[in-house]
Amino acid sequence: MRRVVAFFFILLLISFKAYSLDGVEVLSGFFRGNLEKQGDYKAAQLLVDFDYSLKPFFADHGLNVPGRLDFSLEPFISGVYDPKGNFECGNSFMLKWGVPITKYFMPFIRMGLGFTYMTQHVVEQGSQWNFLPQGGMGAHFFIRDGVALTLEGRFRHLSNNNFSKPNGGIEVIQYLGGFSYFFGAGEPRK
Q: Residue 111 is part of a domain; what is its CATH number?
Protein backbone atom coordinates (compact mmCIF):
# COMPACT_ATOMS: atom_id res chain seq x y z
CA MET A 1 0.00 0.00 0.00
CA ARG A 2 2.90 2.36 0.71
CA ARG A 3 4.08 2.00 -2.88
CA VAL A 4 0.62 2.89 -4.19
CA VAL A 5 0.43 5.97 -1.95
CA ALA A 6 3.98 6.99 -2.98
CA PHE A 7 3.07 6.54 -6.67
CA PHE A 8 0.05 8.85 -6.38
CA PHE A 9 2.05 11.38 -4.35
CA ILE A 10 4.61 11.50 -7.17
CA LEU A 11 1.78 11.96 -9.68
CA LEU A 12 0.45 14.83 -7.56
CA LEU A 13 3.86 16.52 -7.69
CA ILE A 14 4.09 15.91 -11.45
CA SER A 15 0.62 17.40 -11.92
CA PHE A 16 1.74 20.70 -10.43
CA LYS A 17 4.61 20.64 -12.92
CA ALA A 18 1.90 19.65 -15.37
CA TYR A 19 1.13 23.23 -15.36
CA SER A 20 -2.35 24.48 -15.08
CA LEU A 21 -5.89 23.38 -14.69
CA ASP A 22 -6.95 22.00 -18.06
CA GLY A 23 -10.52 20.89 -17.45
CA VAL A 24 -13.36 20.53 -14.98
CA GLU A 25 -15.87 17.71 -14.92
CA VAL A 26 -19.05 17.80 -12.85
CA LEU A 27 -20.54 14.32 -12.50
CA SER A 28 -23.42 12.90 -10.54
CA GLY A 29 -24.93 9.47 -10.28
CA PHE A 30 -25.43 6.56 -7.94
CA PHE A 31 -23.72 3.44 -6.74
CA ARG A 32 -24.86 0.13 -5.38
CA GLY A 33 -23.12 -2.75 -3.65
CA ASN A 34 -23.81 -5.50 -1.15
CA LEU A 35 -22.91 -5.55 2.51
CA GLU A 36 -22.32 -9.09 3.67
CA LYS A 37 -24.30 -8.69 6.89
CA GLN A 38 -26.49 -5.60 6.40
CA GLY A 39 -27.99 -5.89 2.90
CA ASP A 40 -27.49 -3.30 0.17
CA TYR A 41 -25.24 -0.26 0.24
CA LYS A 42 -26.76 2.43 -2.01
CA ALA A 43 -25.99 6.10 -2.48
CA ALA A 44 -26.40 9.13 -4.72
CA GLN A 45 -23.11 10.89 -5.48
CA LEU A 46 -21.79 14.26 -6.63
CA LEU A 47 -18.16 14.69 -7.65
CA VAL A 48 -16.02 17.28 -9.39
CA ASP A 49 -12.84 16.45 -11.32
CA PHE A 50 -10.15 19.09 -11.59
CA ASP A 51 -8.07 17.85 -14.54
CA TYR A 52 -4.39 18.70 -15.00
CA SER A 53 -2.82 17.67 -18.31
CA LEU A 54 0.23 15.43 -18.04
CA LYS A 55 1.03 15.85 -21.75
CA PRO A 56 3.37 18.86 -21.23
CA PHE A 57 5.36 16.86 -18.67
CA PHE A 58 5.85 13.99 -21.10
CA ALA A 59 6.56 16.39 -23.99
CA ASP A 60 9.36 17.96 -21.90
CA HIS A 61 10.89 14.47 -21.83
CA GLY A 62 10.50 13.82 -25.57
CA LEU A 63 7.41 11.59 -25.30
CA ASN A 64 4.25 12.17 -27.29
CA VAL A 65 1.15 10.71 -25.65
CA PRO A 66 -1.81 10.39 -28.04
CA GLY A 67 -5.14 11.90 -26.94
CA ARG A 68 -5.58 13.27 -23.42
CA LEU A 69 -3.64 12.14 -20.37
CA ASP A 70 -4.77 13.84 -17.17
CA PHE A 71 -4.13 13.72 -13.46
CA SER A 72 -7.32 14.62 -11.58
CA LEU A 73 -8.17 15.74 -8.10
CA GLU A 74 -11.69 14.51 -7.42
CA PRO A 75 -13.50 15.74 -4.29
CA PHE A 76 -16.87 14.05 -3.76
CA ILE A 77 -19.84 13.72 -1.45
CA SER A 78 -22.29 10.82 -1.39
CA GLY A 79 -25.67 10.66 0.29
CA VAL A 80 -26.06 7.04 1.39
CA TYR A 81 -29.71 5.98 1.72
CA ASP A 82 -29.41 2.24 2.33
CA PRO A 83 -28.93 0.49 4.79
CA LYS A 84 -29.71 3.77 6.59
CA GLY A 85 -29.26 7.49 5.94
CA ASN A 86 -25.71 8.85 6.24
CA PHE A 87 -23.03 10.29 3.96
CA GLU A 88 -19.51 9.79 2.66
CA CYS A 89 -17.10 12.53 1.67
CA GLY A 90 -13.51 12.45 0.49
CA ASN A 91 -11.12 12.92 -2.39
CA SER A 92 -9.63 10.70 -5.08
CA PHE A 93 -6.42 11.06 -7.08
CA MET A 94 -7.10 9.79 -10.58
CA LEU A 95 -5.35 9.17 -13.90
CA LYS A 96 -7.46 9.44 -17.04
CA TRP A 97 -6.44 8.60 -20.60
CA GLY A 98 -8.70 9.14 -23.59
CA VAL A 99 -8.17 9.09 -27.35
CA PRO A 100 -10.66 10.82 -29.67
CA ILE A 101 -12.25 8.46 -32.18
CA THR A 102 -14.08 11.26 -34.00
CA LYS A 103 -14.38 14.97 -33.38
CA TYR A 104 -17.52 14.27 -31.31
CA PHE A 105 -16.63 11.06 -29.43
CA MET A 106 -13.75 10.24 -27.07
CA PRO A 107 -13.75 7.05 -24.95
CA PHE A 108 -11.51 7.00 -21.89
CA ILE A 109 -10.31 4.85 -19.02
CA ARG A 110 -9.81 6.16 -15.49
CA MET A 111 -8.18 4.68 -12.39
CA GLY A 112 -6.98 5.92 -9.06
CA LEU A 113 -6.90 5.86 -5.31
CA GLY A 114 -8.69 8.01 -2.77
CA PHE A 115 -9.83 8.27 0.79
CA THR A 116 -13.23 8.71 2.36
CA TYR A 117 -14.89 9.37 5.68
CA MET A 118 -18.26 7.68 6.18
CA THR A 119 -20.64 8.70 8.95
CA GLN A 120 -22.21 5.24 9.15
CA HIS A 121 -20.76 2.40 11.18
CA VAL A 122 -21.05 -0.80 9.16
CA VAL A 123 -20.30 -4.30 10.40
CA GLU A 124 -17.86 -4.93 7.52
CA GLN A 125 -15.56 -2.00 8.38
CA GLY A 126 -13.80 -1.30 11.67
CA SER A 127 -13.07 2.30 10.71
CA GLN A 128 -15.02 5.20 9.30
CA TRP A 129 -11.85 6.40 7.47
CA ASN A 130 -11.20 4.23 4.42
CA PHE A 131 -9.27 3.95 1.15
CA LEU A 132 -10.93 3.90 -2.28
CA PRO A 133 -9.06 2.12 -5.09
CA GLN A 134 -11.23 2.38 -8.20
CA GLY A 135 -11.25 2.17 -11.97
CA GLY A 136 -13.61 2.39 -14.88
CA MET A 137 -14.35 3.53 -18.37
CA GLY A 138 -16.54 6.07 -20.04
CA ALA A 139 -16.93 8.42 -22.95
CA HIS A 140 -17.14 12.11 -23.73
CA PHE A 141 -19.78 13.12 -26.31
CA PHE A 142 -18.84 16.61 -27.50
CA ILE A 143 -21.72 18.99 -28.01
CA ARG A 144 -19.40 21.89 -28.97
CA ASP A 145 -15.69 22.73 -28.74
CA GLY A 146 -14.43 22.00 -25.24
CA VAL A 147 -17.85 20.96 -23.84
CA ALA A 148 -18.93 17.34 -23.56
CA LEU A 149 -21.66 15.20 -22.10
CA THR A 150 -19.85 12.52 -20.07
CA LEU A 151 -21.05 9.02 -19.16
CA GLU A 152 -18.96 6.69 -17.01
CA GLY A 153 -19.08 3.40 -15.13
CA ARG A 154 -16.66 2.46 -12.34
CA PHE A 155 -15.83 -0.34 -9.96
CA ARG A 156 -14.92 0.93 -6.47
CA HIS A 157 -13.54 -0.94 -3.47
CA LEU A 158 -13.76 0.66 -0.02
CA SER A 159 -11.63 -0.73 2.80
CA ASN A 160 -9.35 0.42 5.62
CA ASN A 161 -6.31 -1.58 4.40
CA ASN A 162 -6.25 -3.59 7.66
CA PHE A 163 -5.57 -0.55 9.82
CA SER A 164 -8.45 -1.76 11.98
CA LYS A 165 -10.58 -4.89 12.23
CA PRO A 166 -12.83 -5.94 10.64
CA ASN A 167 -11.81 -5.04 7.10
CA GLY A 168 -14.42 -6.81 5.00
CA GLY A 169 -14.49 -4.18 2.27
CA ILE A 170 -17.45 -2.74 0.40
CA GLU A 171 -17.45 -3.12 -3.37
CA VAL A 172 -19.82 -1.07 -5.50
CA ILE A 173 -20.53 -0.30 -9.13
CA GLN A 174 -20.88 3.43 -9.86
CA TYR A 175 -22.94 4.94 -12.69
CA LEU A 176 -22.06 8.57 -13.43
CA GLY A 177 -23.10 11.25 -15.88
CA GLY A 178 -22.54 14.96 -16.27
CA PHE A 179 -20.72 17.66 -18.17
CA SER A 180 -17.02 18.21 -18.88
CA TYR A 181 -15.34 21.48 -19.79
CA PHE A 182 -11.88 21.46 -21.36
CA PHE A 183 -9.73 24.53 -21.84
CA GLY A 184 -6.14 24.12 -22.90
CA ALA A 185 -3.10 21.94 -23.34
CA GLY A 186 -4.92 18.63 -23.46
CA GLU A 187 -7.34 19.70 -26.19
CA PRO A 188 -9.41 16.56 -26.87
CA ARG A 189 -10.36 17.31 -30.48
CA LYS A 190 -8.46 15.92 -33.48
A: 2.40.160.20
